[in-house]
Specification:
mainly alpha, 3-stranded antiparallel beta sheet, two-stranded antiparallel sheet, 11 helices, about 10% strand
Length: about 260
């Protein structure tokens, strides 16, 4: 380890501590003592990271309140400090952290809300989707269609939950003055997060549509995915659904598919 790496590690350790354990004598006193100077930097550092989490997880903050969110953020920072220079990548472990965060145990859906909000964040920063015309299917021999496989577009995420996360998310937007009480027993929801143009959108999927897209995203061939979806809803309009997914760049035929 070279001298620069040692200095960087020492600075990082003192940044999360409460005194100059490693940097004593290396930071000169100014108008304030060195320990006080580092404390000012330490406070600004943590405030900046907390504000970054607030920007990514506004619905979580509204659900638990500003004070509790700051407490949660502080615990998260101590357990998962940033490891990358790109601040857009900070906060990716929030859902896993919240799932085992005992003070939030009374909100069992909170981890899935965190997954949904992180999906929105990733989709916002992802490369754009490429629309695909329905003719990619109509040009194929009918016998090859059941074996067609897809991958999810880059600006897309699929979030499945045992809770009505889309309804909770909708009811806790900034423009909603008085959120409605959401019945957690109404069942789970599968949400497609996508950015077809410039704005991130959330599509709450009906069970059959969610099953179809989930199966396709797992790499199952179209024929098997359709069979599973039709088991839930025999009236599912497959052509309209696939056309919508292809036009939004949600589904992209995989190169290992026949005639793709």
């Amino acid at each position: 380890m070279n001298a620069l790496n040692r200095l960087q590690r020492a600075f990082a350790e003192d940044l999360w501590g409460s005194d100059l354990k490693h940097l004593h004598g290396l930071i000169p006193d100014g108008r304030l003592p060195a320990a006080r100077l580092l404390q000012v930097y330490r406070n600004n550092f943590r405030i900046s990271l907390t504000e970054a989490l607030e920007a990514v997880y506004p619905v979580m903050q509204r659900l638990v309140g500003a004070d509790f969110f700051r407490y949660l953020a502080d615990r998260y920072l101590r357990n998962h400090p940033p490891t990358h220079g790109d601040l857009a990548q900070f906060g990716d472990r929030m859902a896993v952290f919240v799932a085992s965060f005992q003070p939030a145990a009374s909100l069992p859906y909170l981890a899935d809300i965190a997954r949904l909000e992180w999906a929105c964040h990733e989709v916002f920063h992802a490369p754009g989707n490429t629309p695909v015309g329905l003719d990619v299917l109509t040009r194929m021999p009918a016998a090859d269609l059941p074996g067609l496989r897809f991958r999810l577009g880059p600006a897309c995420h699929l979030v499945a939950s045992d809770f009505p996360v889309h309804c909770i998310w909708q009811n806790n937007q900034a423009e909603v003055d008085e959120p409605e009480v959401v019945d957690l027993n109404r069942g789970g929801e599968t949400v497609l997060v996508l950015r077809p143009c410039w704005t991130v959108q959330l599509w709450a999927l009906q069970p059959a549509a969610g099953r179809l897209l989930t199966s396709l995203c797992r790499g199952e061939p179209l024929g098997e995915a359709v069979d599973q979806a039709l088991m839930l809803d025999r009236t599912l309009d497959l052509q309209s659904l696939l056309s919508r997914y292809l036009a939004a760049g949600v589904l992209i035929p995989r190169c290992d598919s026949p005639h793709s």
